[in-house]
Structure formats: structure tokens, C-alpha cells
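Hi,

I'm pasting everything inline rather than attaching a file, because the server keeps stripping attachments. The sequence lines come first, and each chain or strand is labelled.
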Amino acid sequence: MPELPEVETTVRALREPLIGSTIVGVRSDWPRQIVTPDLPELQARIHGLHIQAINRRGKYLVFNLSGQETLIIHLKMSGHLAVTGADAPQSKHVHSVFSLADGRELRFRDTRKFGRIYLVTDPSEILGKLGPEPLSPEFTAETLRQRLAGRKRAIKPLLLDQTILAGIGNIYADESLFYAGLDPRRPADSLTPADLSRLHAAIQKVLKLGIAREGASIDLYVKPDGTKGDMQNAVAVFRRTGLPCYQCQTPITRIVLGGRSTHFCPHCQR
DNA sequence: ACCGGAGCCTGTTAGC
DNA sequence: TGCTAACAGGCTCCGG
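And the predicted assembly:
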């Protein structure tokens, strides 16, 4: 579920309760969620480590721990992280839990069990192939042009490719293409410099809007404290099939592109 | 090298 | 009401 704005919102909410805390244990009733190392080694290595910083790279949460260790978590479709007391009621979809020295817990709830946990000494092992951060100064219209150069595929599935650009998912891809006025089926190599410039600006605009509104609570996503984000009230096309386009009143169309639902205005996007 | 499709999971909703 | 199929914001693997 979560894309860059939802992960960023989660990171910001976790910093205050977690930075400076000490991890003293991990338990899991779904060890497949832990990709590397295996659960016994994770328990051994993480015991006693302090959480020094929490950041985001693409859709990954990155916890810098003492001892040169890095804990990396991907929420995938349905993951949710929250800090609670040890005796707080626990959802049946909580499968992995980090215990803190002061008795609190960091709980990973994940209904669909797609989420993943990694503990590594070299984060590039997991994050190395990701494309640039869309909100960083290094990401310019020219960067976007270079990364799409020679690609004949439709632009929409390319925006979802995390090696081209990190952090965009289905919502923000559709929203970006709407504000750029681009048909999601347009071959990437047909985009003019003006198209790419509009797309670059649109990507930054919708991601910043998503962060400002603390994520889109369309299906399962809620913030760590359980409350909803507000971006679902600001989408122009995503899951608005049949509803009038805010710019021209033409009904929003839904197609399947690269196996994913795709929503666009057939009049405004060309 | 690139692309589409299946697979991983559970829950909700749409359709008959 | 009850069953079944489709669908869900992600990503990886596999075969053509």
C-alpha cells in the first residue's frame, strides 16, 4: 500500500518515540517476513543495539543502529508500524515485534504478509539498485530524460520501476501523469523535452502534496497512530473511474496497463 | 535486454 | 443470503 509519502509520514512519526531507544529482542510468527539474516541470527545481532536515526529511501524505511548495523523494512502492500506498550491489545495481523529496553514494542502489522525485514551491515545490498530520490535536488527534468532514454515502453509502468525513480507507486504515478497532461500509454521515447519538464514538475508536486496531507488512506493505510491521512481527498484521477474530471468534466477512464489499474482523463491527458 | 504473466497473502467488494 | 471471482497502493521470478 504505502508509497513514498506514506513511508515518509511513517518515518516522521517513528522518530520521536524511537530514536535513542534500545532494541532488546525480536519475535515473529511469520519468519518468512525476515529476509536476512534468519530469525535466530537477527535476534542475536540486534540485541542491545540503539536506534540512532530513521530515514527513508524510496519506499524502504532505514533504521541506523549502533554497531554499524542497519535495519531495513519494506511495508509492501499492507504493512504498518507502530510503537505501543507491551500490554496494548495486538491485532492478529501483527507478525513481527521488536521489544525495546523500556518495555515498549515496535510492532509490524501486515495483513497480506508481503512486507519484508532486513538487517545488514551494508545497506547498498538492499538499496543499491534504486533510482534517484524524486524530491532530491539531484532529480531534475534532465535526470528524468536520461533515465528514460531509449525506453519504448509506456510511461506509466516505467514510473513504477524503482530502478528508474524510487518511491512512486500506483497512486502517485496516475496523479503525476494527470498533472503532466500525459496519456499513461505514451511510449517513453515519444515524450518531448516539454513533456518531460511537465512530468518532472508534476511528480514533485504530487509527492509533496501527499506528504503534506500525510498519505492517502484509500484502503488500509493509516498513520502509525492509527489515524487517517488526507491525500485521498485530494486525488484527481486515482480510483475516480466514471467520475467527472475536475478540469473538463469528462469521465475518468480506467484501463489495465502493465498489469496495474490505471486511471486517467482521456481529454486532458494526451 | 525487455516484457508480460504468475506468484506471494488476506480481506473486501462486486456480481450472479 | 451465499457463493465465486475480481481486485487491492509492491515486487520478484520465470519464460518467451
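The two ends of chain A are 28 Å apart (CA to CA).

If the labels don't parse on your end, tell me and I'll reformat.
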